[in-house]
């Protein structure tokens, strides 16, 4: 087993090209070292933690760019993220533990493509795009088009994620991220909701809702979104939207939780979080 | 390592790295798949860092690497090349760790003691970055470290007793 | 904090003495068994059964033997003596030869130059199985249709007791209640997994150094397995990175002993967490049917109790554990009539062993839940209802047993009634949010301490004045974190009139320590502490007789008589060989109702918990707790609090999140990622521990053990609090957010109720 620790993206894609599927790409290792078989049939370990180009969080004016190698702790300590992507900030706050956050990278979380990945719902509601690179060139895709099944991505062979870009939070927006886990730390989500909507008029607009852990991949709301955009924002509307949310998610029962519980808490997360922003008293 | 062990490992590729553990440099040939926890305990005989689960769920293996608290069971030793690593054995040159150790003893934060090195490293990381954490911040800081004996209460008491907020200091 | 009473003036007993072993632990310099290693050690890995129940047709190690770096492979053929172990019943093979009876059953041990070679060799061993349908339901195991898992059938232990006329009593009662209860399999989750080394010492004894809870008994088990005389074997079982009962049975000791015995090289084993989950024993899941009768005046009339305890593939201590389940079925109350039945049943669902509480938490969950229901039905205050039914001295328990020694439940109820939570319950339960509901729950309980009647239960301690002027106490029980080493030092220093720094010790080493019995059954402070007291007292008397005085004082290593320095300890040691032993035999009942049945010494506890439920998510948070502990005379209050707080958080896990699930005989969640233990963020800091005023006359200092009572009554206090909050009673553990939300949805809360504006 050979080991490489390239310093540039160019070096990295060249080494990957040399080893192809026998290359084991690692960053924070917080996922891959839990798998007994990760190094099976691999001939080279390629460490990405020393690639300087992908370690920044940048405010590009109209959007934010995060390098693939940025850790969750760096995201949590970033004023840019706190100011411009509140949902991501709140998702990272409840991710794993201090030790895990100090190592886990944003690209690692994305590429692992778990249905329970905490960074995905907040990135998706901020219209995230990924920059990808291989020896064949560079391209961009929308994050929502990356993952098509648990653990499965549309990455081409030997392609790596280099940057993640997303739209900044705007003024007059309702934003929240809420996760219900198995406990308060070191916990995988049973269900999560990332929400963003413009609230400058009596109806919400530009509503973006992404649900995590309640489908094979992140589910992007169609119906709850429609209910909120078509009706005056009040308790009634929230109730109807929450029922629509209940109906548009398809969780499973597994070791952590049941399908029916997950559906109910998706509904109730919307009720609990959105009711805070309603101006009227209950009927 | 025994002679047989050495000859077996020469068949597999090793990487030459420099580890800086508690300000001491070690030049080692390690397998790329070795974890930092393994190297600390089995190669360098620094057994203060403990194995609890091997999957980052208990924090017993916590060390501070380049200023970051990490689970050493999830760090490949090769990734620690040329990085400063602080383990519990580094207390001799670290006044803050010594303060934490004394507080743990005084406040009854140690029972079986197996989680203790990891807890102390977590506390060291917190207090190295914040000298007046709130109680909630202390709980958050040790929430990646499991303890089955103490129920955490006296561990939090111990850390709290040496923050700048505490009346113990006055 | 003590509730009333005048204590003698002690220098160390009851005072704040930091743990004497804490320094080595905070520096990371203490070597646990998992830290021990030798240059040329043989690394051991165990091949374990793929199936929960199967016949072994053949075991072929030939391919594995050829692998470069393999030193020795052991199977049943290599066991020189008895290929079996078990504390009470030796029905568990060291290496399986005909059947495997649970998923973790051991089939072979591979010894190799490195762990990775051992792992590769493990994969090369070919085992041919005839896979059989596992028995997963203990009720099915009781039927004649079920295959016999052991030669005497599937019932390990069966108990029936009756008192008075239960049928008539229930018929005549104003109210009767009947429910089925179910408790789950709980994992000990000690942070240090099963591990250790074996080697030969200078006296050519085979030494096994592995975490455990009774080294002298481990020697006996190993002597049978190796067919070696006990003098040739030495076990060192201390320190331990957590035990809680899970290291009482032998775990890895046999593999270490055999490997070193047969290779003549040191050997080491260190189980991975997953292997520890799968191969290690768990708390017995128990199904209980409880029928109780009560009259309008609040007096209990009778109890009919039936328990089926799933002991898994092998016995270990399943028999005695059932005995305690049955013995404690009546809790702290007086039932004039009772019928109590229990079965401990073999299945292929894992393997169950001793775990803090030893069969009692299961009974108390059922009883304390039903006590609340009875109180609510007759309209009586839940604490008052408990008080008027407390068993008093002279009254007999559910299995017609006596309680001649101290009964702490009355003091506990008195203290609870004066406590902050009880007296402010309405205020504490207020929330300003319609979807956050709070509740307060109570529970009371007891725990038989010591091994009960019929089993040898004694402790010996030796004290030596060493040439360097230190008093060394030698005790056979291990320090697993309970803090008993510190308490023994306090007891010794108090009696010897010396300073704590004059005390050194050896624990858990059969090479030098006498047999002090097991570190289990809440007996170490009581029995071993007493033997330390007597050994120290004899030493003091010996010194007094040498100097013809009635007392003395030791300061800075100097003995003072009448405030005059007489001699230094080092000088005294050079002149005289001072060595004493102390003995204590645990008092037992006069009539034996079964192995270890009944106890006469009981510790008592009571818990009050304040919880808050988020009714939109079903999540429960424990906000505040009061832990009332009857410890008799408290040796070290900080130690008691530490155990109480730890026991409380372990109780939160048992009540709300922990469940080691076995499906069709297979472990579903054998990892910390999926077996949910409380982290610091899941644990309240507001936990008050109150030691109630009780003095146990049978102990020289009036003390009792508390290692189990700090846990045993926690879960029902929490589940009763949940019931208080949401008005629904739960009959099985754990009570998860899924369970709670299902109930709340059925309660049909309207959306207007659940909004918080």
How does this model look, in words?
- The complex is a heterotrimer of chains A (283), B (170) and C (757).
- In chain A, 30% of the residues lie in helices and 26% in strands.
- Chain A has 10 helices and 14 strands.
- Chain A has helices at 9-19, 72-76, 79-84, 86-93, 98-101, 106-112, 120-125, 223-230, 235-248, 259-275; strands spanning 2-4, 23-26, 44-47, 57-59, 63-67, 129-134, 137-142, 147-149, 152-153, 160-167, 173-181, 189-198, 205-212, 219-220.
- In chain A, the strands form 4 sheets. Chain A has a 5-stranded antiparallel β-sheet with strand order 4-5-10-6-7.
- In chain A, strand 13 (205-212) and strand 14 (219-220) form a beta hairpin.
- Chain A is globular, with a radius of gyration of 19 Å.
- By secondary structure, chain B is an alpha+beta fold.
- Chain B folds into 2 domains: 12-89, Ubiquitin-like (UB roll), CATH 3.10.20.30; 94-161, [2Fe-2S]-binding domain (DNA polymerase, domain 1), CATH 1.10.150.
- In chain B, 34% of the residues lie in helices and 15% in strands.
- Chain B has 6 helices and 5 strands.
- Chain B has helices at residues 3-9, 36-43, 95-107, 116-129, 135-141, 153-161; strands at residues 15-21, 24-30, 62-65, 68-71, 84-86.
- Chain B has a 5-stranded mixed β-sheet with strand order 2-1-5-3-4, with helices on one face.
- Mean pLDDT of chain B is 92; it is low at 1-10.
- Chain C has 757 residues and is α+β, with helices and mostly antiparallel strands.
- In chain C, helix 6 (215-226) crosses helix 7 (253-263) and helix 15 packs parallel to helix 16 (524-547).
- Chains in contact: A-B, A-C, B-C.
- At the A-B interface, helix 5 of A face strand 4 of B.
Features of this protein?
heterotrimer; B: 170 residues; alpha+beta; Ubiquitin-like (UB roll); DNA polymerase, domain 1; 5-stranded mixed beta sheet; 34% helix; disordered N terminus; C: 757 residues; Aldehyde Oxidoreductase, domain 4; 7-stranded mixed beta sheet; 28 strands; globular
């Amino acid at each position: 087993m050979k080991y490489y620790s390239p310093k540039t993206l160019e070096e990295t894609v060249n080494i990957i090209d040399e080893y192809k599927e026998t290359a084991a790409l690692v960053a924070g290792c917080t996922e891959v070292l839990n798998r007994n078989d990760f190094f099976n049939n691999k001939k080279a370990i390629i460490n990405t933690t020393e690639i300087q180009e992908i370690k920044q969080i940048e405010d590009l004016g109209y959007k934010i760019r995060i390098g693939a190698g940025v850790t969750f702790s760096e995201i949590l300590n970033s004023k840019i993220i706190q100011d411009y992507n509140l949902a991501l900030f709140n998702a990272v706050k409840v991710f794993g533990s201090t030790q895990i956050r100090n190592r886990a990278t944003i690209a690692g979380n994305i590429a692992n493509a778990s249905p329970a990945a905490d960074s995905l719902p907040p990135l998706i509601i901020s219209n995230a795009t990924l920059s990808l690179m291989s020896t064949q060139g560079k391209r961009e895709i929308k994050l929502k088009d990356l993952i098509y099944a648990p653990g499965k991505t549309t990455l081409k062979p030997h392609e790596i994620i280099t940057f993640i870009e997303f739209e900044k939070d705007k003024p007059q927006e309702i934003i929240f991220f809420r996760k219900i886990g198995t406990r308060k730390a070191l916990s995988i989500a049973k269900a999560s909701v990332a929400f963003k909507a413009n609230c400058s008029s009596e109806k919400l607009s530009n509503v973006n809702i992404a649900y995590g852990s309640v489908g094979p991949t992140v589910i992007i709301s169609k119906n709850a979104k429609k209910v909120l955009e078509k009706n005056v924002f009040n308790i009634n509307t929230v109730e109807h939207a929450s029922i629509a949310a209940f109906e548009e998610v398809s969780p499973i029962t597994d070791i952590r939780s049941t399908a029916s519980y997950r559906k109910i808490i998706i509904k109730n997360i919307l009720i609990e979080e959105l009711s805070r922003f309603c101006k009227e008293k209950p009927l | 390592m025994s002679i047989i062990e050495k000859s077996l490992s020469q068949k597999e590729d090793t990487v030459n790295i420099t580890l800086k553990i508690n300000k001491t440099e070690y030049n080692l040939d390690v397998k790329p798949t070795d974890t930092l926890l393994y190297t600390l305990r089995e190669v360098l005989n620094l057994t203060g860092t403990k194995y609890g689960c091997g999957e980052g769920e208990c924090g017993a293996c916590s060390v501070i690497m380049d200023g970051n608290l990490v689970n050493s069971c999830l760090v490949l030793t090769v990734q620690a090349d040329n990085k400063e690593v602080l383990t519990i054995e580094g207390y001799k040159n670290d006044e803050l760790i010594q303060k934490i150790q004394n507080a743990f003893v005084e406040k009854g934060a140690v029972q079986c003691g197996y989680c203790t090195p990891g807890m102390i490293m977590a506390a060291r990381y917190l207090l190295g970055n914040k000298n007046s954490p709130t109680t909630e911040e202390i709980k958050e800081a040790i929430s990646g470290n499991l303890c089955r004996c103490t129920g955490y209460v006296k561990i939090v008491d111990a850390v709290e007793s040496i923050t700048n907020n505490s009346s113990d200091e006055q | 904090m003590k509730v009333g009473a005048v204590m003698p003036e002690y220098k160390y007993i009851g005072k704040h003495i930091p743990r004497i072993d804490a320094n080595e632990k905070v520096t990371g310099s203490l070597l646990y068994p998992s830290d021990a290693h030798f240059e040329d050690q043989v690394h051991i890995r165990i091949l374990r059964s793929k199936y929960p129940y199967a016949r072994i047709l053949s075991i072929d190690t030939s391919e594995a033997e050829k692998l470069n770096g393999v030193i020795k492979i052991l199977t049943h053929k290599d066991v020189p003596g008895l290929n079996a172990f078990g504390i009470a019943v030796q029905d568990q093979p060291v290496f399986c030869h005909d059947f495997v009876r649970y998923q973790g059953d051991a089939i072979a041990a591979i010894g190799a130059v490195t762990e990775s070679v051992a792992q590769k060799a493990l994969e090369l061993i070919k085992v041919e199985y005839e896979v059989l349908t596992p028995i997963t339901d203990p009720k099915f195991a009781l039927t004649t249709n079920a295959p016999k898992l052991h030669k005497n059938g599937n019932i390990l232990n069966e108990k029936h007791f009756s008192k008075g006329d239960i049928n008539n009593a229930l018929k005549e009662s104003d109210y009767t209640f009947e429910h089925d209860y179910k408790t789950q399999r709980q994992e000990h989750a000690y942070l240090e997994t099963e591990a250790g080394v074996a080697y030969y010492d200078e006296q050519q004894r085979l030494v096994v150094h592995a975490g455990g809870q009774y080294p002298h008994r481990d020697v006996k088990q190993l002597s049978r397995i190796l067919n070696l005389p006990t003098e040739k074997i030495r076990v060192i079982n201390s320190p331990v990175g957590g035990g809680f009962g899970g290291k009482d049975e032998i775990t890895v000791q046999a593999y270490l002993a055999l490997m070193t015995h047969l290779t003549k090289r040191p050997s080491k084993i260190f189980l991975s967490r997953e292997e520890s989950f799968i191969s290690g024993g768990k708390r017995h899941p128990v199904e209980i049917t409880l029928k109780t009768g009560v009259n309008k005046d609040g007096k209990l009339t009778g109890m009919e109790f039936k328990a089926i305890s799933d002991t898994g593939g092998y016995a270990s201590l399943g028999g005695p554990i059932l005995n305690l389940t049955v013995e404690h079925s009546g809790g702290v109350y007086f039932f004039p009539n009772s019928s109590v039945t229990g079965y401990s049943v073999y299945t292929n669902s894992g393997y169950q062993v001793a775990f803090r509480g030893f069969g009692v938490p299961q009974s108390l969950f059922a009883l304390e839940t039903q006590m609340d229901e009875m109180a609510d039905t007759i309209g009586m205050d839940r604490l008052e209802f408990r008080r008027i039914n407390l068993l008093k001295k002279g009254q007999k328990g559910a299995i017609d047993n006596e309680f001649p020694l101290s009964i702490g439940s009355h003091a506990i109820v008195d203290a609870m009634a004066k406590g902050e939570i009880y007296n402010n319950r309405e205020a504490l339960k207020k929330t300003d949010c319609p979807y956050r509901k709070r509740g307060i729950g109570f529970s009371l309980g007891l725990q038989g301490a010591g091994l009960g009647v019929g089993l040898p239960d004694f402790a010996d301690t030796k004290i030596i004045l060493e040439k360097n002027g230190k008093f060394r106490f030698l005790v056979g029980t291990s320090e697993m974190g309970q803090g008993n080493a510190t308490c023994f030092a306090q007891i010794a220093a108090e009696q010897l009139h010396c300073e704590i720094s004059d005390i050194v010790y050896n624990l858990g080493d059969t090479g030098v320590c006498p047999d002090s019995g097991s570190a289990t059954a809440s007996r170490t402070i009581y029995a071993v502490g007493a033997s330390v007291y007597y050994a120290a007292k004899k030493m003091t008397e010996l010194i007094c007789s040498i100097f013809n005085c009635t007392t003395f004082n030791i300061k800075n290593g100097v003995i003072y008589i009448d405030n005059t320095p007489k001699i230094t300890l080092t000088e005294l040691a050079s002149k005289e060989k001072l060595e004493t032993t102390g003995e204590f035999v645990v008092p037992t009942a006069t009539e034996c109702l079964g192995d270890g049945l009944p106890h006469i010494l009981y510790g008592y506890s009571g818990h009050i918990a304040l919880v808050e439920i988020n009714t939109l998510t079903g999540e429960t948070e424990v906000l505040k707790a009061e832990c009332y502990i009857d410890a008799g005379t408290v040796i070290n209050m900080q130690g008691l609090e530490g155990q109480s707080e730890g026991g409380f958080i372990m109780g939160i896990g048992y009540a709300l999140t922990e469940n080691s699930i076995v499906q069709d005989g297979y472990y579903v969640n054998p990892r910390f990622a999926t077996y949910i233990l409380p982290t610091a963020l899941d644990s309240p800091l507001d936990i008050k521990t109150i030691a109630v005023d009780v003095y146990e006359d049978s102990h020289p200092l009036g003390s009792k053990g508390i290692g189990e009572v700090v846990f045993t009554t926690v879960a029902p206090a929490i589940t009763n609090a949940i019931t208080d909050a949401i008005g629904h009673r739960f009959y099985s553990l754990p009570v998860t957010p899924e369970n709670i939300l299902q109930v709340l949805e059925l309660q049909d809360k309207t959306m207007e109720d659940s909004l918080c504006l």
